[in-house]
Design brief:
The chain is an alpha+beta fold. Helix content is about 45%, strand content about 15%. The chain has one domain: CBS-domain (Roll), CATH 3.10.580.10. The strands form 2 sheets. It has a 4-stranded mixed β-sheet. The chain has a two-stranded antiparallel ribbon with strand order 5-6.
Length: about 170
């Protein structure tokens, strides 16, 4: 019995052409390939010095409806304080929010990301490291923050929906 001749496969696409193909086929991929700068544009950046009390930081977070404060000293990021830090490092330990300062309970030297990186990279970094907020740094200074909640943002859903609508009209005439 003779073996059937092997079918010749086309060469594998490079990453760039694969991304273009996928982006055209799936608008959700377009969102994850967007630069972080375009996603974080409308985000609320909250900054506080290390000597800020936990109570003051919590009040600021509640007022702006955000889950994290970037702790900055001399225009440089030194830490991040999140709602989880408030629960696990302050309340669960019985510390007094009125007198405890962020420097004592913040996450020091957090991982950061550059604004030109793709949004999908930020999501991956947060997932792989087990946190939900990622400071965006440019020229050594904090300029924004990305949250895993951004992936659920209605603006992003609207963007994907609009891209699908445009594609449909292009295909259907």
């Amino acid at each position: 019995m003779k073996a059937a001749p092997r079918e010749r496969l086309p060469p594998a696409p490079d990453h760039e052409s694969l991304a273009r193909t996928q982006s055209a086929a799936d608008p959700e991929i377009v969102v994850f390939s967007q630069p972080i700068r375009s996603i974080m544009e409308h985000r609320k950046l909250l900054i506080a010095p290390p000597q800020t009390t936990v109570l003051k930081a919590a009040e600021m977070m509640a007022k702006k409806h955000v889950g994290a404060v970037l702790v900055v000293d001399n225009e440089h990021l030194v830490g991040i304080f999140t709602e989880r830090d408030a629960v696990f490092r302050v309340i669960a330990r019985g510390l007094e929010p009125k007198t405890t300062v962020l420097a004592d309970v913040m996450t020091r030297d957090p991982k950061t990301i550059a604004p030109e990186k793709p949004y999908g990279t930020a999501i991956l970094v947060m997932h792989e490291n087990g946190f939900r907020h990622l400071p965006v740094i440019e020229n050594g200074k904090p300029i924004g923050i990305i949250s895993s909640r951004n992936a659920l943002d209605p603006d992003l859903e609207e963007f994907v929906s609009e891209e699908r609508r445009r594609k449909h009209f292009q295909e259907c005439g």
